[in-house]
Specification:
Shape: elongated
Number of helices: 16
Structural class: alpha+beta
Radius of gyration: 33 Å
Strand order of the largest sheet: 2-1-3-4
Helix content: 40-55%
Largest sheet: 4 strands, antiparallel
Strand content: 5-15%
CATH architecture of the largest domain: Orthogonal Bundle
Oligomer: single chain
CATH superfamily of the largest domain: Intergrase catalytic core
Distance between the termini: 100 Å
Order of helices and strands: EEHHEEHHHHHHHHEEEEEHHHHHH
């Protein structure tokens, strides 16, 4: 507890505040009128508020301007109670520019994927902080976020990009709300630009076979065969190791992926928890492709001798180093262009695998599990256009289970008009 006034020294500086129990030194530094007149100046207090969740810095609550000591004591009691019960909102002066990088670093420690960190950091540094950084975190309102989103759209940013930037803001402010740095999340219930769902491009089964036949002489042909017959993602193909392949049991286990971030390639867990350590059964053609690749890889190991780099990965360069994900994509694009077939991305081979399974009548739950989707709903949403054919096939299958109708039985469409 302390008192302070607006009086100044002969040098024009404000006198020091007067603590409730001042020392002799503190008495000499304060206003002489405060010492003899209890009504001179106003009362204030300072109390510790622990560590700021957003920055890790020590906090202190300071309030000034109370007419009486009792008023100051009452407000101090409220502040102490807020800190003790976890209701204290923290540093109300913390800016968006200071909070966002701290939130991002904490997210990294919490296990955010490197590829996601790279994207989030770009949006934070290039979009969010320049537009909203000057605002105090506690002062951000829905109209600020709404105006920012509208400006991004007016600047010609794509609907998908705008939605991603909004997702970063919403996630950051959700953390701020959970840490009691703000009262509510102002990024919720914001109108976002509509996105048109891109139609998945896949080949007909005849075109898939044509591609495999045309590219059979390519060194990386087994990579694309495995992509078509297993639905593995690019990173999962690049990260596949021989210890995770069991040719006898005819299955592989997806345990890691190789992700390319600019010029760097990082190895880590797969994209989803449900996709981690999933077992994918292999058909005869997939087994044949892996055996052919193993024979070729062994020949390359022998040819390179001591210079060969044994990495343990399935798909490697001639010297044994694991393939870079971008190299797989570039090779695929070149082969598709030479084939004369409709354009398709490497990732579309994953959709091709799902299409072949669903067209073959495989249960969607099995398809979802092979692809490593977190829920069946995701699989259903992605491939809803294929499920109608499966539904018709299911209807016919149900009827085919019954014995033939008796001669006298008839249905409505067989009755005479």
């Amino acid at each position: 507890m302390y008192r302070r006034c607006g009086c100044r020294t002969g040098e024009g500086k404000l006198f020091a505040l007067l603590p409730e129990r001042p020392t002799a030194v503190q008495k000499t530094a304060t206003c002489p009128i405060l010492l003899r007149d209890s009504k001179h100046g106003s009362w204030g207090f300072a109390t510790s508020a622990g560590v700021a969740p957003g920055t890790g810095k020590r906090q202190q609550i300071r309030r000034m301007g109370f007419s009486t000591k009792r008023e100051a004591q009452q407000e101090r009691a409220k502040a102490i109670d807020q800190v003790a019960t976890g209701k204290y909102r923290g540093d109300r002066k913390l800016s968006v520019a200071a909070y966002m990088p701290a939130w991002l670093e904490r997210s990294i420690l919490d296990g955010m994927r490197p590829s996601t960190v790279r994207m989030y950091r770009r949006y934070v540094e290039m979009d969010i902080v320049p537009a909203l950084g000057a605002l105090k975190l506690a002062e951000v309102r829905k109209h600020h976020v709404d105006a920012f989103i509208r400006q991004l759209t007016a600047d010609g940013r794509g609907a998908t990009t705008v939605r991603r930037i909004h997702a970063v803001i919403r996630s950051a402010l959700t953390s701020a709300e959970r840490l009691d740095l703000i009262d509510t999340n102002p990024a919720t219930k914001i109108a976002l630009p509509a996105t048109s769902k891109a139609k998945t491009r896949i080949w007909e089964p005849e075109q898939v076979r044509e591609f495999l036949d045309q590219t059979s002489e390519s060194r990386l042909a087994p990579v694309f065969e495995l992509a078509i017959f297993t639905g593995l993602r690019r990173g999962e193909l690049a990260g596949l190791r021989w210890v995770d392949v069991d040719l006898t049991k005819r299955e592989l286990t997806v345990r890691q992926q190789r992700v390319q971030l600019g010029g760097a390639v990082l190895e880590g867990a797969v994209k989803t928890d449900s996709g981690q350590d999933r077992r994918v059964s292999l058909g005869s053609e997939a087994i044949g492709a892996l055996i052919a690749w193993k024979i070729r890889q062994d020949a390359e190991r022998e040819a390179w001798g001591v210079a060969y780099e044994s990495s343990g990965h399935v798909f490697t360069y001639e010297n044994g180093r694991p393939l870079r994900p971008a190299h797989i994509s570039r090779t695929f694009e070149t082969l598709v262009e030479r084939s004369g077939l409709p354009h398709m991305r490497l990732h579309d081979l994953r959709h091709e695998h799902a299409s072949l399974l669903l067209s073959g009548g495989v249960d969607i739950a099995i398809v979802s599990k092979r692809l490593g989707h977190s829920t069946i709903a995701i699989t259903s949403d992605l491939y809803s256009h294929l499920l109608s054919d499966a539904n018709r096939a299911a209807a016919d299958a149900a009827e085919s289970m019954l014995p033939p109708k008796k001669a006298r039985a008839h249905t409505l469409h067989t009755q005479p008009v």
